[in-house]
Amino acid sequence: MTGSIIKAQDLTVTFPSPQGPQSVVDKVSFQLGPEKLGIVGESGSGKSMTARAVLGLVPTPGRVTATTLSYRDNNLLTMPATQLRKLRGAKLSMILQDPKFSLNPVMRVGDQIAESVRLHQDADRRTSREKALEILARVQIANPDRVYGLYAHEISGGMGQRIMIAMMIAAKPDVLIADEPTSALDVTIRGQILQLLDDLIGEQGTSLIFISHDLNLVAKYCDRILVMYRGSVVETLDAQNLHASQHPYTKGLLDSLPRLDDTRTRLPVLDRSVL
């Protein structure tokens, strides 16, 4: 792919077990350009672990190997830890699933955004606070001054997700990874958050990796889709062609989705014997 920002070839993540090393991500290859890339699959298929491997966030004793794992031709596997820490947040950011567990519970949410600004933009405390308030307004939070002083337990799920987005876009990253960013939200708030995210990454020219279980959502929102099963990519296709997929696993996932015009009395169960 021309103009690739992230390149991964044969990306593998293993963890030790009594039976020997077990691969939770197995030789995954993909490239990310200036686009919105969706990664779909069941729980345990390796979606989140693939994203964490790119960011260098696989917990010990996990081991990451790859023929190639790079950001703009910088080798992420051999990059010194200090340099990788500077890259995370500044150029590569990740929105985690539940803001209640991702935000620091003993630190005001505004101070957490200001800290991100201060670390990645070398701003003083006053400037960091002003920029944090500006970013809170950009993510459509009413009364940013009041929200700045709240703690994680004092905010709703939708507000928490907006604050997480604010933290991650503060440094205007090249790549934003959104790991199930709307899974804990109701349908109305989910649409607002996705529209907000779409507007912000469009303004900043940020590439997106969008991880989700919701195939219809990914088909509507993304440009290209990777389908993962048991740690491997089984299919890559344009989002607009998702419902024309011929791979049995992707077809099985699609067939198991309920539809308003569906006359079936029972939803089919995914047949793994053909995989």
Index terms:
globular, five-stranded antiparallel sheet, single chain, six-stranded mixed sheet, alpha/beta, 23% strand
Short note summarizing the structure:
It is built from ten helices and eleven strands.
Task: Report low-confidence residues grouped into runs of 5 or more.
Answer: none
Strand order of the largest sheet: 7-8-9-3-10-11
Task: Tell me the helix content.
Answer: 25-40%
Structural class based on helices, strands and sheet pairing:
alpha/beta
Description:
This protein has helices at residues 47-55, 81-90, 99-102, 109-121, 125-138, 144-148, 157-169, 187-204, 215-221, 248-255, and strands at residues 6-15, 22-32, 36-40, 63-65, 68-71, 74-75, 92-95, 175-179, 207-212, 224-229, 232-238. Helix 5 packs across helix 7. It has 275 residues and is α/β, with parallel strands linked by helices. The longest helix has 18 residues, at 187-204.
Topology, element by element:
Elements: E1 6-15, E2 22-32, E3 36-40, H1 47-55, E4 63-65, E5 68-71, E6 74-75, H2 81-90, E7 92-95, H3 99-102, H4 109-121, H5 125-138, H6 144-148, H7 157-169, E8 175-179, H8 187-204, E9 207-212, H9 215-221, E10 224-229, E11 232-238, H10 248-255
Parallel strand pairs: 3-9, 3-10, 7-8, 8-9
Antiparallel strand pairs: 1-2, 1-4, 1-5, 5-6, 10-11
